[in-house]
Amino acid sequence: MHAQAELPDQVADEACARVGNDRHRLLDVLLTVQHRCRWIAPAAIDRIAARLGLTALAVRGVASFYSFLSLEPRGHITIRLCDDIIDRHAGYDGVLAAFEDALGIRLGGISADGAVSLDATPCIGLCDQAPAAMVNDVVLAGLTPERARDAARALKAGARPEDLVSPVFDSLSAHERVRAAVANNIRLSGDVLLGEVPREAGLRRALALTPEQIIAAITASGLRGCGGAGFPAGRKWEAAAREAAARRFIICNADEGEPGTFKDRVLLTERPHLLIEGMTIAARAVGAREGILYLRGEYAYLRDHLEAVLAERRAAGLLGVGILGTPGFDFDIRLQLGAGAYICGEEGALISSCEGLRGEPKTRPPFPVQRGYLGFPTVVNSVETLCHAARILDRGPEWFFAMGTPGSHGTKLFSVSGDCRAPGIYELPYGVSVQELLHLAGAEDAAAVQVGGPSGVMIGRDSFHRQLSFDDLATGGAIIVFSGARNILEIVDYYLSFFVHESCGYCTPCRVGNVFLREAIAKFRNGHANAEDVAYLRSLSATIIETSRCGLGTTSPNPVLSTLAHFPLVYSVVTKPSDDGLQATFDIQSAIENARGIAKRRSFVFDRDFSQ
Amino acid sequence: MTDAAFTLTIDGTVVAAKPGQTIMEAADAAGIYIPRLCDHQGLRHQGGCRVCTVKAAGRSVAACTQPAAPGLAVENETPHLHALRRDLVEMLFHEGNHLCPICEASGNCELQAMAYRLGMIEPSKFPYLEPTRPVDASHPDIALDTNRCISCGRCIRASEDVDGKGVFGYVGRGIHRRVAVDGADLAHTDAALSDHAVSADVCPVGCIIRKREGFRVPIGERDFDHHLIGETIAEKRR
Fold this sequence. Notes:
The complex is a heterodimer of chains A (612) and B (238).
Chain A: H1 8-18, H2 26-37, H3 42-52, H4 56-63, E1 77-82, H5 85-89, H6 92-103, E2 116-121, E3 133-135, E4 138-140, H7 145-156, H8 161-165, H9 174-181, E5 186-188, H10 201-207, H11 211-221, H12 233-242, E6 249-254, H13 263-270, H14 272-286, E7 290-295, H15 303-315, E8 332-337, H16 347-354, E9 378-382, H17 383-395, H18 397-401, E10 404-405, E11 408-409, E12 411-418, E13 424-429, H19 434-441, E14 446-451, E15 457-460, E16 478-483, H20 488-502, H21 508-525, H22 531-547, H23 551-555, H24 558-566, H25 568-572, H26 588-591, H27 593-599
Parallel strand pairs in A: 1-2, 5-13, 6-7, 6-9, 7-8, 12-16
Antiparallel strand pairs in A: 1-3, 3-4, 10-11, 12-13, 14-15, 14-16
Helix pairs in contact in A: 1-2, 1-3, 3-4, 6-7, 9-15, 10-14, 10-17, 11-12, 11-14, 14-17, 20-21, 21-22, 22-24
Chain B: E1 6-10, E2 13-17, H1 23-29, E3 53-56, E4 59-62, E5 73-75, H2 79-95, H3 110-117, E6 142-144, H4 154-162, E7 168-171, E8 178-181, E9 208-210, H5 223-226, H6 231-234
Parallel strand pairs in B: 1-5
Antiparallel strand pairs in B: 1-2, 3-4, 3-5, 6-9, 7-8
């Protein structure tokens, strides 16, 4: 039913040759091997190491970092179920059971013939149509147990994953294939990004300006980074332009990994030309000739579509040498696919990943605009920021500046998901209140809203009047709605597990502290916590935030701190007063659970029902 | 930027620095000790353990990687930073298996010495993660017990940059990140007793063990049996 597995060393040879044995392209090499062999076999590691002039350990170090690279065989068909909290609320358990049942394997398992494997993965950017799953290079959205069972049976019967998306998949264009798999769910189009957008208008205007004038326009517009941190885009461009350097780079961060965020998915699907136009304008402004579009591994199904857009633009003279007939204006873009690592959304880690390294953040300073990709000045902007930039050049900075609030100009794409009738994308000016957005999305039952994803804050009804802007509730755009039926501690527990899973492990507080934080929350969920444990949550969170090396650790305790602030009752109802004034640090029941299993009997001392 | 020397202050003491120096380098030269575990004389700075966290102009930064700057006001020995550092050292203790009474490194161990310096004298509130990693005793001269590893990466940088070998490296991610060797086990690497990476003072704990040297110096006569960690740096000022 499946093609004979290819020899790992031969595939490794071809993959290395394709990138000119350039060690900075190690991630591409590993992705190719994973794709064709379904794992990174020791023989492949040795061959790659020899070809690229690395140690086998260095190759293993990179391969073991990324979730989508495997050091053990995975199935010819690799199913990755999205187990985000939204998917769990939307019926993940039933879908998982259906897959397990129909495939005859458990989660994390692989069928005996190596045909299929089943794994779970954090948010894949389809919260508006959860539960969802990746099946090799395609995605299935809006799953039900029935659909899952049908899909599993079809795959077992020899169908290709692509056949599950559309019976006429092969006859569709790259864009149509994406549209067949995923709904855009654009609920509200604003003036800037999702309304009418004339092609190349911004780029044509930029070509009439000097690089300094382009930067001045971006600065005057008030545009701030839309990935969450909100750094002024004009200042970033100017800093990179100012550095004396032989090469400069523009990198588009399309690694939106914040659970609950899917706006880039929609922009990449519907506004890819605007994005590349924005990158091209940025290149003109800072004097870059090379660009990288870093696409998260979860969005691999968008790759062919984006490659087609790049090819179309090269053919039209919008990329390449002498863009739009402008002598000396040369710029081209390569697409770098990620491999399942939230941390690569951090700009330093993203650059490490592009360089073929483990996706660990870089020491700052120097900042990427000083020494970034391969040591050259590099501008890293999000998809939304770059799209905005192109529109600002077209319509002028005053137009953009006039929208929004005094500290947050323009519009923002909000990714709304969870307990609401109309999940999807809403483009609204900054300054809209949470309440207004909830009303638009049909979320009258909202009891809690996670603003900005797990690294943001969770607010309750008494804060729904607050504004979405950098001056009040800053957000990368994720708005996750929870009704009163949801268990807040379960959500906090889930988000902490997410951060534990995604921490790169470089620094102590994030690597270790987040594990402790998750264990502390488990104590609350198990009913063993007392008032001391609340103080412990706060002090541990403070240490993690203050000493962590990058934004992951400085925000990972936010689910704990914001729920302690906005939902104190959730904690107090499960907190027991301590009889002896001591803090329980040891739970005998979980401690002897292993022993029960080994002895295959219950404890005479600790199990009241021992006689049974 | 000029090459002119400048000054900054550390806990109010005026310290001379040169452009390109980190806060820690300037402090070391001035005889002011900033606690650290992953940083080591002669090796690249990593900024991973975070024990050297200081406040520079009010912002918490790692002193080993943060550049010194003219007029910068650095806080080092404050109760607040002391508490943060103790939390970090406790995290490292609880992440691995650090049983001082049965460890050959006891008395020479920087983690243990740092715990004493920071006053970690009672059971901590953190849970124990109790890893069960196999000990690699395959090499004739060197053994590796990564249950005691604190992920400082000193052996990795020493092997790569000083020995030019790359015997050690990180694998895995997050809490599963650990130090591994470039081969099936240590015997299948080109590690040698003469490597800087396996010299006595590169591994700060009892993870890299030089065989047949154990207990040559009796307990009670070891480095930190007689003085606190950091005193050799602080002595320069006296």
